[in-house]
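This follows on from our talk about sequence and fold. Go ahead and set the record down below:
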Amino acid sequence: MCGILAIMNSPNGKTEEARKHALTLSKLLRHRGPDWSGCHISNGNILCHERLAIVGVDILFLDSGSQPLTNHDSSVVLTVNGEIYNHLELRKLLKKDVQFKTHSDCEIIIHLYEAIGLEFVGHLQGMFSFVLYDSNKDLFLVARDPIGITTLYRGKNSKHPNTVYIASEMKALQDDCDEIEVFPPGHIYNSESGKTVRFFKPDWWNLEQIPTKSSDLVQLREALEAAVHKRLMADVPFGVLLSGGLDSSLIASITVREADKILQCPDEDGSAIYNWPKVHSFSIGLEGSPDLKAAKEVAEFIGTKHHGFTFKIEEAHDALSDVIYHLETYDVTTIRASTPMYLLSRRIKAIGVKMVLSGEGSDEIFGGYLYFHAAPNSTEFHQECVSRVQNLHLSDCLRANKSTMAWGLEARVPFLDTNFLQIAMNIDSKEKLFGDNKMEKYILRKAFDDTDNPYLPHHILWRQKEQFSDGVGYSWIDSLKEAAESKISDQLFDQRHKRWTHDIPDTKEAYWYRTMFDSLFPNPAANSTVKRWIPRSDWGCSTDPSGRAQTVHTAAYGNNVTNGNSH
């Protein structure tokens, strides 16, 4: 992934001053793409790019993949953040005489646009956000991947109503824009029509459509394996994030197997993979944390070269302001979970790794959060799953993207593969419900419960859910609450309604984060881009997002929940 910035219909776009200003804004995104910078101006439209080179890194062609990308006569210009996993397959839709200028997987966007027009975006499989400008038509397009794995923001300035600002992160817009919004995932904006329309329209997206299809565990397993396989496309060192929980452990195990397949048959499907002797895995936690212990055991079982890092409470507290700056949120859940991930990402990048696979998305797809135990019925359970997936771009996707990209590290998330989603989200929600001797994510666990060729140790496969912010060490969250209590007086907290009229903090911890956010992003428009993640209080759940706050965590299922031995 990279960082993109575009100022379309800039009032002073043809001047050197406008170019310098755009580059200054783009520089705020350079942590996302430290490898190279680019800028292209056409008809008063400025497109900038900060590159993190993952694919198209060629010793003989050192500029291969540098952006903005252009077509043969530079009439079509593209600045894009992301990876197009099916780029080789999409070449089959083009005429044979189409000439590619780079080795970038993203160049297919330009040629596909020229070949089939606006419908091209629906053919893309991957994670992406881009701005494309066609000077022949004086037309520009803005699009974001179906789930919002990549981050993207749109801004406006009331003094220049025809100018549109686009950036990978909100911080590049706050000085110029008095209106900022999150660009919606699965949508494309067409400047000709002035409309932003949805291109991602799966049947399961409709909250009123309740699935009734029985699960096919083989199909589910093979779909996730295929999702991992396509995400191993890389010309640089890569690894896996391994917390020792179910989701990251499955992704790590599958990665080891699929990487081995690619290395044995490298030309079978055109896949490229950086060949290290072993897949590297990474975990972080406080000394003695549950995640560190479980991750080490999983790594030994699946055969990765493992790196387990510890952090101190003081180090994490010192990083909070930086975390909020990079995450651009004041949401308690996101900040709690992002801080260890932010610290880990720095360690990983220092080793020389530029891409990792991660396990985000599974809890939303299968209803894995512990508060789902309180779902009144299967219909509401399914609707909550769909709603959580629809809002991933405001929570876990935002965390995974920005925590890692703060250090120029790309995170890929196989669970959010659209083919996998099509299968998993259409499974009868009754099969996902807890109870009847079934723990959370039962069907996912059973799909990988292979006694002949086990993916994971049995007790790891059936390990209870831990929020990442819990698993790194329970004292982490306790320390945040204690620090907030000491920093925010009762008097200040009682007067919070005078300070804010929107999204008023309901705890001192939330108050603390909000004050840091406001100091970093004083533009009032910045607040509109944040949405808080909380469990369903109308289901009788605690509003504290920690998994420990849910009663089922302390109950630990008693003796009535299957550990995988019963069917």
